[in-house]
Amino acid sequence: MAQMKVRKAVFPAAGMGTRFLPATKATPKEMLCLVDKPLIQYGVEEAVAAGCTEIIIVTGRGKTTMEDHFDKSAELEASLEARGKTALLEVARSVSKLAKITYTRQPEALGLGHAVLMAKELVGNEPFCVLLPDDIVDASTPCMKQMVEAFNETQSSILGSEVVEGDAISAYGCLDCTPDAANPRLLAVKDMVEKPKPGTQPSQNAIIGRYILTPRIFEMIETITPGAGGELQLTDAIKALLQHEKVYGFTYEGKRHDAGDKQGFLRATVELALKNDKLGPDFRSWLKQLPL
Ligand code: G1P
Fold it and tell me: Which of 27, 33, 65, 119 has the greatest number of C-beta atoms within 10 Å?
């Protein structure tokens, strides 16, 4: 069989962002600015670095600033050009040239599985990535690139995974898995459960917001019924997929920030600002003189 290639990335971005109110009352949470660019741009850049050329963003009501952000801004470019601001002009242009971006809507917030299902026609019959824009992964090799490399070997669905401590696992999808003999980063998945009650988790291996899925997942989403929180859960669809295909967990190299949470967002801001080539050195000196 011909080798399957990953070319498309789906971004569920229709959620209401209630964890971040009041900031997200009129601004999509995906557009919150982390250091110097919106959250969603980190994910899109990661997908592009992984070789994706088509980005599918699943949006909803009140999310149009995302479309403006990735669109060409003729007025802004003309103004920067007229004033000879060539470096800024390049920054503005590069955002609109990142990839081919298509938008589709999720009319009702019925769950992550349902959001992914909205991309069925646009994805078609090929494997694809899913990136949850809240999860920012800081890594020397972009997380999705690591996963695409693993997919090229396994040709099976792969879920980004990390070990979380104690009851924190109850906020995640949780894997029942064993280490793969051939590749120490891969975990052979036996079963999974979305948001296990404390004490019932099969392991401490959480699913993070990075997935590569085979197209059969759409059929599975169509068969599942509402699960945790009364929502159509992607985890339940992947569990159903396990009846037909192999699924792997993948212990990525890097550090994840939950930027959909206020505390996580603050931490990500400080850590990424310190690493920023232009802003980092000054920011570091300023932090050091704070009376902490
Ligand atoms: C979603 C998924 C969950 C996963 C998590 C990663 O949950 O349903 O399986 O572990 O993303 O961030 P949410 O954070 O939307 O509740």
Answer: 119
pLDDT tens per residue across span 123-179: 999 999 999 999 999 999 999 999 999 999 999 999 999 999 999 999 999 999 999
Categorize the per-residue pLDDT at 2 as very low, low, confident or very high, splitting at 50, 70 and 90: confident
Domain-located, residue 254: yes
CB 123 within 8 A of CB 116: no
The verdict on residue 54 lying in a domain is: yes
Q: Which domain holds residue 189?
A: 8-279+283-287
CA 233–ligand 1 middle distance (angstroms): 9
Note the pTM of the prediction, 2 decimals: 0.96
235 lines ligand 1 (CB under 6 A): yes
Residue with CA nearest ligand 1 atom 13: 172
Nearest atom in ligand 1 to the alpha carbon of residue 206 is 10
* Domains contained in the chain, number: 1
Q: CB of 132 closer than 6 A to ligand 1? A: yes
Q: Is the CB of 221 under 6 A from ligand 1?
A: no
